[in-house]
TrEMBL record, chains A, B:
Family of the protein in this entry: Belongs to the IspH family.
Binding site for (2E)-4-hydroxy-3-methylbut-2-enyl diphosphate: 36, 70, 120, 161, 217-219, 261
Residues reported in the UniProt entry to bind [4Fe-4S] cluster: 12, 92, 189
Free-text comment on the cofactor: Binds 1 [4Fe-4S] cluster per subunit.
InterPro entries: LytB/IspH (IPR003451)
Binding site for isopentenyl diphosphate: 36, 70, 120, 217-219, 261
Protein's organism: Arcobacter porcinus
Class of enzymatic activity (EC top level): oxidoreductase
Name of the protein in question: 4-hydroxy-3-methylbut-2-enyl diphosphate reductase
Pathway assignment: Isoprenoid biosynthesis; dimethylallyl diphosphate biosynthesis; dimethylallyl diphosphate from (2E)-4-hydroxy-3-methylbutenyl diphosphate: step 1/1; Isoprenoid biosynthesis; isopentenyl diphosphate biosynthesis via DXP pathway; isopentenyl diphosphate from 1-deoxy-D-xylulose 5-phosphate: step 6/6
GO molecular function, a single term: 4-hydroxy-3-methylbut-2-enyl diphosphate reductase activity
Enzyme Commission code(s) on record: 1.17.7.4
Active site residues per record: 122 (proton donor)
Pfam families in UniProt: LYTB
Length: 277, 277
């Protein structure tokens, strides 16, 4: 069986940057998981003693705290800066952009629409930057959009950086048809675009697709959804232990892609295991 | 054969308003055709002595000049106001809107994209309001868009009021994928929307479609194009004299729609003629 990697996959700029920051601050701790990959977080813990807090109240005054790539809500950042010795901001710059857009557009009197998942830490952070918290709306689909009554006639919209561009366009189109001015900020990250396009391309020609990444990683789930459109035998796994022999039975070509938080060493282990099956 | 009118058709707000203005100013003249309908212009000429100038140099100091619904270029309006006794502005308010948007966005440093036809008087007028005339781009399709190198990273876009919304969305989508900020002003007129939706609806269930309007009227051509998508026997005519008997042979249902410049009396004559065939 031929095994082929997508032409673009895995670590993005923001994740690489965050890991480099974490490796530089031994004995620090991250506020929430630094990236959506448990294997890499365990490696940072083992090799660099980087701890992990899940709530603000656990943080101690002497801690050096690293802000995760997804960012955190504005007030949490303020509290951390007040109560902790050192705060290192590893928020991806591509996430800082929608945070600033929401702040500025909200100040200028635009109603805010975020295309994303309300429960995702990135979205929780971005939302928190609005001046008027009653006028920030988060949607995942056109159906969600139909339920919204915007306070203003002018709408500004951003997207969670890891979302599918096709769905963003659908939502934006519905907005344009109903509103006289829509200010569209395309905040979907280029790396996300490239990985999505490459996943589309390789899944069309593969008999089986393996998507490697965190089960709670937004960009990994998008890649999986794109692969499923073109290759019904597409599987999302976190590491090589989840591979099942029967997936590859009578298959001639296996395509591989990985989410933006998936380190190369995890991908290599998956490839080695597939070869051995 | 059943003859049915679209649920929305014909005269829009801007055209009605312009005709009322022209009827009020007997012995005046319009700068370019007031609306895109020769029969109605002849009626105004006959009943209200409203003349028609085709170039600025023909205007005399004592004239009362009416600005057509489509508007005219900024400098032409300035010249008219300087050289003529009285200028009455019958520019449709829905056309004044994109003129102002282009002026303001251009001032704020946005590159301007107009979805429309460079040769259409409305577009010539709207374009002229940009501060930087080298940074106003007019496109009719995605192919046109690909040839443009915008001066700025921020793009503001408006549409000719009578264009097809689906094509505008296609162009806007392509813009969004390539640019970080796109400020979308949906300047397609609601009446245009309504007539287009109604034309779509009736053309689906008709065996033959008659679209009545000026051959150089943008909104009439859009209606014809929409009808052709659903009913291959769709004909664009200016008045009843162009009807051909064989169009209706063995047809069970005939749908009728009309452009925004088509007066009811022209539509009625068409219906009477079809009945007589």
């Amino acid at each position: 069986m031929k095994i082929e990697l997508a032409s673009s996959y895995g670590f993005c700029f923001g994740v690489k940057r965050a890991i480099e920051i974490a490796e530089k601050y031994e004995n620090s701790a991250t506020m929430g998981p630094l990236i959506h990959n448990d294997d890499e977080i365990n490696r940072l813990k083992k090799d660099f003693k980087v701890g992990l807090y899940s709530k603000l109240s656990d943080v101690k005054p002497d801690d050096t705290v690293i802000i995760r790539t997804h960012g955190i809500p504005k007030n949490d950042l303020k509290d951390l800066r007040k109560n902790t010795k050192k705060v290192i901001n590893a928020t991806c710059p591509f996430v800082t952009t929608p945070q600033n857009i929401v702040k500025n557009m909200s100040k200028e009197g635009y109603s805010i629409l975020i295309f994303g998942d309300t429960e995702h830490p990135e979205v929780k952070g971005v939302m928190s930057y609005a001046e008027d918290l009653d006028d920030v709306n988060v949607v995942l689909s056109i159906e969600d959009l139909e339920k919204i009554n915007f306070k203003n006639k002018k709408i500004a919209t951003v997207a969670q950086t890891t979302k599918k561009k096709e769905t963003y366009l659908e939502i934006v189109n519905a907005l344009i048809l109903k509103n006289k001015e829509v200010r569209v900020f395309n905040t979907i990250c280029d790396a996300t675009f490239e990985n999505q396009d490459a996943a589309r391309e390789i899944s069309i020609k593969s008999d089986v697709m393996i998507v490697i990444g965190g089960k709670n990683s937004s960009n990994t789930k998008q890649l999986h959804s794109i692969c499923l459109e073109n290759c019904k035998d597409s599987y999302l796994i976190e590491n090589e232990n989840e591979l099942q022999k029967e997936w590859f039975k009578e298959k001639k070509s296996c395509g591989i892609t990985a989410g933006a938080s998936t380190p190369d060493w995890v991908i290599q282990k998956v490839i080695d295991k597939i070869k051995s099956l």
